[in-house]
Specification:
Keywords: Mitochondrion. Helix content is about 75%, strand content about 0%. It has three helices and no strands. The protein has one domain. Helix 1 crosses helix 3. It is rod-shaped, with a radius of gyration of 20 Å. The protein is an all-alpha fold. The protein starts with a helix and ends in a 6-residue tail after the last helix.
Length: about 90
């Protein structure tokens, strides 16, 4: 029984460390994420403006894979809502 309890405590400690590490990474990546959101919003507005005047938008200037390859889903998710990782 004591071994089970010790294992449980060790797992909880490990989970807390992992969560703190994830949060630290999210804070470190926050400037990149903010810049990415700004660029995405700017591109979307430009595309919507072009659609209103009937011009098809050329996506060649936006390299989405290049923008997203540095940010994994979990980091992006934490940046939007750090409380949701609980």
């Amino acid at each position: 029984m004591a071994e089970s309890s010790n294992a449980s405590v060790a797992n909880n400690v490990e989970r807390r460390k992992d969560k703190k590490l994830e949060e630290a990474i999210a804070w470190k990546e926050r400037p990149k994420i903010t810049a990415l959101r700004h660029k995405i919003n700017q591109t979307r507005r430009k595309w919507e403006d072009l659609q209103q005047v009937g011009i098809e938008h050329d996506n060649s200037e936006v390299d989405h894979e290049d923008n997203l390859e540095t940010i994994d889903y979990d980091t992006l998710h934490l940046a939007y809502d750090p409380e949701s990782s609980t």
